[in-house]
């Protein structure tokens, strides 16, 4: 079965590609480059491809920005230009912290298809109970995770999806014998089925029941991974087995790391990078424009400022211009979906082929010219995240492709 996934930002697009394709995770000491188990393409922009017969196609709709009506219109346009058709499953990937115009886009799904929504990612501590999204046990509305947004999150998932009509399926329903009937009632009412989930097993049940009843599945990487497992076993094999979808060979180059977020997690990661000997340029917002970055070597750039949503667009533009001036054909690490989208658009990178995960959420891909591009959401990862990303990228450059005899 083939999958078309639509994601509302680029880091989310690569993240969902990784879990749908069961992308291998880099581990130290493996002398053989791991191979994607199925052919996978990520389109950096929603422009339709001339032809695309990949098993997993992910399109970045870039719908996190703009207005709700613009987001709904873009989603409808992508589906009209690239319909799912028989034998092709549609998945809608959204932020696990519920950022973006989710309700408007769910309402834009063709009326014949009911929608099931669940943002839970249990392995990241993101669970849903009684219709409330919790992060490490704390309701989302009581965390500071929306500090970079222009407003606070709603207290419930249903309220965040407004004006889309919703029906809650609580944990008792998810784990009980009445799940199929509850989904059927939601579909009959024209409501989005909002599902509780606290474990991978809950997500497995949700995905299986939704597929069986023809629902469009929508949510975060946890539900995408459950969908991938429902689509059947993925046998590993050498890259050559992918035929025309064989990824380009990564070229050898230094790495430019761009942290488009001023989060506390990103600061800790930059500190570990600097401790390992990687130059880290901590720039105040007013310094970025015109800053002369070194043209050689691996280097990182991070914003030295408090989170301020009123200047986020200007920061993204300044960081993008910095990369345009100084990328020098280096490989790229782009933290934050908006930063990644802007930089790759400026460099005219239109498609990526995911190769492996440095860690969950940090996906290393290759562009047509052999440039490696790693993306991840801005707040993701442990303090050693950037070091793990660099290790994985060096591994891809240094490992000679080996095919089992």
From TrEMBL:
Asked whether the keyword tRNA-binding is assigned, the reply is: no
Q: Describe the location of the Four-carbon acid sugar kinase nucleotide binding domain by residue ranges.
A: 306-386
Could you give a GO molecular-function term held by this entry? kinase activity
Q: Where is the Four-carbon acid sugar kinase N-terminal domain?
A: 4-227
Keyword terms, alphabetized: ATP-binding, Carbohydrate metabolism, Kinase, Nucleotide-binding, Transferase
- InterPro entries recorded: 4-carb_acid_sugar_kinase_N (IPR010737), 4-carb_acid_sugar_kinase_N_sf (IPR037051), NBD_C (IPR031475), NBD_C_sf (IPR042213)
Q: For the region Disordered, what residue ranges are annotated?
A: 26-51
The protein's name is Four-carbon acid sugar kinase family protein
* Provenance organism: Kocuria oceani
């Amino acid at each position: 079965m083939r999958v078309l996934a639509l994601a509302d930002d680029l880091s989310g697009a690569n993240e969902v590609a990784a879990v749908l394709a069961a992308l291998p995770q880099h581990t130290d000491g493996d002398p053989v480059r791991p191979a994607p188990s199925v052919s996978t393409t990520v389109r950096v922009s929603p422009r339709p491809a001339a032809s695309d017969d990949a098993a997993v196609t992910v399109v970045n709709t870039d719908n996190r920005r703009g207005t709700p009506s613009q987001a709904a219109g873009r989603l409808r346009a992508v589906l009209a230009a690239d319909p799912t058709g028989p034998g092709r499953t549609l998945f809608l990937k959204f932020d696990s912290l519920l950022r973006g115009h989710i309700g408007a886009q769910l309402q834009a799904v063709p009326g014949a298809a009911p929608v099931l929504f669940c943002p839970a990612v249990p392995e990241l501590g993101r669970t849903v109970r009684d219709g409330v999204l919790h992060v490490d046990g704390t309701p989302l509305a009581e965390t500071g995770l929306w500090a970079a947004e222009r407003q606070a999150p709603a207290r419930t998932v249903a309220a965040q999806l407004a004006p889309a009509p919703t029906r809650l399926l609580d944990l008792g329903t998810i784990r009980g014998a009445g799940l199929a009937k509850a989904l059927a009632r939601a579909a009959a009412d024209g409501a989005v089925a909002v599902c509780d989930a606290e474990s991978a097993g809950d997500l497995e049940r949700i995905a299986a029941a939704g597929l069986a009843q023809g629902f469009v599945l929508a949510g975060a990487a946890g539900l995408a991974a459950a969908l991938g497992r429902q689509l059947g076993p993925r046998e590993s094999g050498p890259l050559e087995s992918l035929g025309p979808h064989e990824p380009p060979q990564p070229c050898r180059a230094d790495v430019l790391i761009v942290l488009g977020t001023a989060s506390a997690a990103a600061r800790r990661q930059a500190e570990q990078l600097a401790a390992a000997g990687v130059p880290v340029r901590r720039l105040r917002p007013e310094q970025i424009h015109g800053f002369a970055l070194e043209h050689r070597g691996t280097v990182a750039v991070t914003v030295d400022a408090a989170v301020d949503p009123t200047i986020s667009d200007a920061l993204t533009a300044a960081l993008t211009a910095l990369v345009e001036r100084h990328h020098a054909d280096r490989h790229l690490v782009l933290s934050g979906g908006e930063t990644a989208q802007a930089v790759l658009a400026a460099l005219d990178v239109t498609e990526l082929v995911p190769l492996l995960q440095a860690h969950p959420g940090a996906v290393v891909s290759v562009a047509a010219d052999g440039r490696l591009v790693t993306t991840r959401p801005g707040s993701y990862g442990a303090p050693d995240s950037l070091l793990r990303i660099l290790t994985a990228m060096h591994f891809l450059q240094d490992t000679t492709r080996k095919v089992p005899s």
